[in-house]
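ARCHIVE CARD
Drawer: 12
Card no.: 0347
Subject: one protein chain, sequence and derived structure
Cross-reference: see card 0346
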Amino acid sequence: MTKETEYAIEVGNLTKRYGELLAVDDISFTVSKGEVFAFLGPNGAGKTTTVEIIETIRTPTSGKVTLLGMDVTKKKHDIVPRIGVLPQEFSSFDRITVRETLQYYSRLFRRKTDIDGLIELVNLKEKSKEQYKNLSGGLKQRLGIAIALVNDPEIVFLDEPTTGLDPRARHEVWEVLQGLKRQGKTVFLTTHYMEEAELLADMVAIISRGKIIAMGSPGELVESNADYQILTLKSVDEKVFDIIRVMGFEPVLDTGKTIRVRVEHTYDVQKILNAIKDAGAMYLGLDVRKPNLEEVFLKLTGEALREVPPEMEPK
């Protein structure tokens, strides 16, 4: 018997060592059922190791991980049929169609799968007779998500589902993921795109150097770490940069004659604008906003969430 719990995933004091390397350092978190949970971290932070332990691929050095109330080190046989996984570099058989691909994976799980329903869910109805080799990158990713769902899993693990896609294909995949959310699936998402996490995730956990350093909704993480604002001035006179710098701020000028400056208080914005006006300088537009999740991530980790091959992470 598995114990009923409100959590799809429970991670308690998880540690993973590889010799002298401490890849995961005593981390704990929970993922609620029906939630989209984004797990973010720079490459080398222990992200891949943690996810692979949850997926039953690796074993922890210490600590406990339960998935749907079952210990991942003891109940792999019971867990695997109840999860779906889209690996980062998904590929399939070149010469079989979308429909045939889903039929093949359905037979592997020995399940009666609603193939038409899956094709509809991932918006591949018009491509159902197309061979895999002829699909675009975005269509291949949507098929990969469908394959991860052939066994009607309760939890779906999606590893960088939109990496390498153009903006349009990325947005189409996001629509599919929002469909999973409406279905009540629990989605465990790793991503290099902060916009993706902000749009899709109910909760975000940030891991750095093997430790969870922040966790909350995207809005909560921004609010709790946003003790400043960003003032952006567009199409400025050259002397505006010096005016702001002399005032004690640290403006950044890009090649398009746009200045971005961090201000701690709202009244600093007015001080800067007054100084520009008094000097007879010009700007054509301005924007003031709180930092986004990407800027919070950079502040907390000291690193950008950059795209690096997964083999660069500690194994």
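Annotation on reverse: Confidence is low (pLDDT under 50) at residues 307-315. The chain has eleven helices and 14 strands.
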